[in-house]
């Protein structure tokens, strides 16, 4: 699904930015490679949104049945006030935490797409492209992998640290923003 979205959206987004470049004379934006990163982000966004949408929906359904929301509704508070004062503050913290956990998954998806040659294109840097070059897919020989497997360590360690850090940030935000602990 991700591959299909990336392959389908890339020409349209590229043409859109070329039209912007022609009209606004901002050639640096297009030549900097921002289009590659934007295509990956747009391809991964719809897939990560469904889980977040389910979480928010479940949170809203559970929060609207809590007694203080029911009493606010009974006392005549407007729907806008109930949403902004009671429901939204309790939904924001799980949304932030889920987003930080999701960033690790999006980063890993970008690495996988770049490894298979569908992500960010050279000469732009990508950890998946680095893994692809070392493992022999990007023109390097397979003997490099068998004779010098330590060359795989640098990109793999960076990927692991990056995903681990996003998950640690998400865990810390869970501890900070959890209303049941405060």
How does this structure look, described?
By secondary structure, this protein is an all-alpha fold. The protein is built from eight helices and no strands. It has helices at 2-24, 27-31, 34-63, 67-74, 79-115, 127-135, 142-147, 153-177. Helix 1 crosses helix 3 (34-63). The protein starts with a helix and ends in a 5-residue tail after the last helix. The model is unreliable at 1-5 (pLDDT under 50).
Q: Any idea of the CATH class?
A: Mainly Alpha
* Helix and strand run: HHHHHHHH
Tell me the structural class. mainly alpha
- The appropriate CATH architecture is Orthogonal Bundle
Mean pLDDT: 75
Q: How many domains in all? A: 1
Low-confidence stretches: 1-5
Number of strands: 0
Task: Give the SSE layout.
Blueprint lengths: L1 H23 L2 H5 L2 H30 L3 H8 L4 H37 L11 H9 L6 H6 L5 H25 L5
């Amino acid at each position: 699904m991700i591959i299909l979205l990336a392959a389908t959206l890339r020409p349209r987004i590229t043409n859109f930015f070329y039209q912007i470049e022609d009209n606004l004379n901002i050639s640096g934006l297009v030549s900097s490679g921002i289009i590659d990163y934007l295509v990956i982000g747009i391809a991964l966004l719809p897939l990560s949104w469904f889980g977040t949408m389910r979480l928010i929906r479940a949170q809203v359904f559970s929060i609207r049945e809590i007694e203080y929301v029911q009493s606010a509704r009974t006392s005549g508070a407007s729907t806008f006030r109930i949403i902004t004062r009671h429901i939204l503050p309790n939904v924001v913290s799980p949304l932030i935490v889920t987003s930080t956990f999701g960033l690790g998954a999006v980063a890993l998806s970008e690495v996988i797409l770049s490894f298979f040659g569908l992500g960010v294109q050279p000469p732009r840097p990508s950890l998946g492209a680095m893994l692809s070059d070392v493992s022999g897919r990007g023109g390097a020989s397979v003997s490099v992998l068998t004779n010098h497997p330590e060359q795989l360590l640098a990109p793999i360690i960076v990927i692991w640290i990056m995903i681990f850090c996003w998950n640690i940030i998400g865990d810390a935000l869970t501890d900070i923003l959890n209303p049941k602990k405060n």
